[in-house]
Amino acid sequence: MPKRHLITCALPYANGPIHIGHLAGCFLPSDIHYRYLKMKGEDVLFVCGTDEHGVPITLKAKNEHKTPQEVVDENHTRISQSLYAFGIHFDQFSRTTNSLHHKTAQDFFKTLYQQGVFEEKTAEQLYDEESQQFLADRYIIGTCPTCSYENAYGDQCEQCGRTSNPLELIHPKSALTGNTPVRKETKNWYLPLDQIQKDFLNDWVATKKNTWKSSVFGQCNSWLTDGLKPRAMTRDLDWGVPVPIEGVSHKVMYVWFDAPIGYITATKEAVGEDWTTWWKDPETEIIHFLGKDNIVFHTIIFPAMLYAHGGYNLPTHVPANEFLNLEGDKISTSRNHAIWLHEYLIDFPEKTDELRYVLNSILPETKDADFTWRDFQAKINNELVAILGNFVNRVLVLTHKYYAGAVPQGHIAEDLPNFSEKITQALDQFNQRQGLEAYMEIARYGNKYLQDTAPWKLMKDDSSHQKVADCMVTCLQIVHTLGQYGQVFLPQTAQKILHLLQLTSYQENLISGHSIGEPILLFEKIDDNDILHQISKLEVVEDTEPEQDKEVALTKPFKPMIQYDDFTKLDIRIATIIAAEKVKKADRLLQITLDVGSEKRTVVSGIAEHFSAEEIIGRQVTYLANLAPRTLKGIESNGMILMAEDETGKLRFLSPDEKISAGSLVS
């Protein structure tokens, strides 16, 4: 075991707020690992910061008629506040526009320059004649030569993930003017990745085959198999870290050169002169948490920089995650198909642990995952409320009922499982989903133990009172354990449990006679209206894209292919609406009675904003008859009325051209 652990989290880009994809991709996993190591008493440092250079920042500033500094100032504040509210408490959350970072990055660049590492080249780059400037990679949009995606950037195609040379794009256009750029020569400084691959990367990456995730090693190895090429580390721009070469102006460092150096800057800000202990002492391991789109930069480019510089530790682990989708669709900031953290904090105050729990339970550790609001509701109501919260509440209520809120004189059950073993095994391997499952097993065990022991029955027999005391002492110890490991997964909940147990820290034990607090509910059920409101927000497309792209933005992508047998499982019929009324205290819900031929069915549908109850009576609709029932506002809803959404967001019934018998099959 190394003496210390330096944990970094991919720097969030300061051209906008952050969403749940960022939280699930790296912030939550890194925080869980940090809290886990801290709980074990390890020496650990957790650093991050906002990445504030690069072309998207300047584009954003231009569109909003602001300076780049104003844009990053606003977003740094919003990002840092959102993360802190979710319990992501870095030892240092820095910024790449800080003066210390500029100096750190420039010193790093100077060392490579003075050691003769860089290759100085004059080469053709794309130039926008109207704006009279060379175009950085993100100023160029064209067709990807690999997958033919028409909106690929000059540095990377977001469709297939290919990192490219902007000169390779087909039909390139300037993002500034829309014009076709011309080729023009300019001088830049290149990192000779091809040579570094031969000298170092091939052998070093090979040593990671059994320690890195297979997806991380596989992507990295694929790059090496294709063969690396020299990559320019400077750009013809004004916004960024100035290149520290005498006589050179209007050139800044490539954003992926200065951004990872931000980890070093943040360490300097956190610990001062002791920063070398965390970056150069071989007893320190470095762990980079990030999303899969950043793998190449942390497994190839940054290690190549560190190796070329000399004297630095290289990353030990790079536990990158896959992507999080939203309601079956890719998260899209331009279409506002996202759940923004700062908005969630407004809509669900004091419910940060709830989102942490749901995201942790579906972390995209080995494959892309999908977040849905219905799943969010179900996990909170059926797991946090019904299992974890219910157990803690029952234990405290019974302790107050039988022992006036004092820990009784009793013994902890001898056969109590070793709850920590599974959690430790999972978290040591960065399997945080599995770790959470093991954590919830504690609450499930507690509920079963309490139910099986049934102290409310034993209390009726005077000779069984000691068994009751033993049961309650055991249950209180399980509550203590839930709070202790809750520090890793659910920090706010852990604090609530600590307060309920009236302890100052989880280092304290519950002793006989110790008073505990009055019971409170740890979690509240999520109401259907809250979920319907959130789903409706996702249907609103903000006017943030060019006019010609609006139709594309409003078009939902096709879902994954299914087999014919999957389709035949759907029982779709024509039904006639024979009655409808508003559901009380639910502005968006209608209770609808359907004639489906052989019987009548009740459906609760969130269409009240589009139709009145009166106007839909008598309509024939398309009805999914074999969807499992669910209860909404106390009403059992059986099946679903199928609807279509037009380009304005208006819902339309799917009805036959002519009236036919209710119950007719659709095939």
Runs in which pLDDT lies below 50 for 5 or more consecutive residues are 541-559
Total DSSP E strands? 25
Structural class call reads alpha+beta
CATH superfamily heading of the largest domain: HUPs
The strand order across the widest sheet is: 19-18-17-20-23
CATH architecture of the largest domain: 3-Layer(aba) Sandwich
Please summarize the sheet with the most strands.
5 strands, antiparallel
Keywords:
five-stranded antiparallel beta sheet; 21 helices; 4 domains; four-stranded parallel beta sheet; 667 residues; 17% strand; globular; Rossmann fold; Methionyl-trna Synthetase, domain 2
What would you note in describing this structure?
By secondary structure, this protein is an alpha+beta fold. The protein folds into 4 domains: 4-108 and 254-326, HUPs (Rossmann fold, 3-Layer(aba) Sandwich); 115-235, Methionyl-trna Synthetase, domain 2 (Beta Complex); 373-500, Isoleucyl-tRNA Synthetase, Domain 1 (Orthogonal Bundle); 561-653, Nucleic acid-binding proteins (OB fold (Dihydrolipoamide Acetyltransferase, E2P), Beta Barrel), CATH 2.40.50. The chain contains 21 helices and 25 strands. A 5-stranded antiparallel sheet has the order 19-18-17-20-23. Helix 1 (20-39) packs across helix 16 and helix 7 packs across helix 9. The radius of gyration is 29 Å and the shape is globular. It starts with a strand and ends in a 14-residue tail after the last strand.
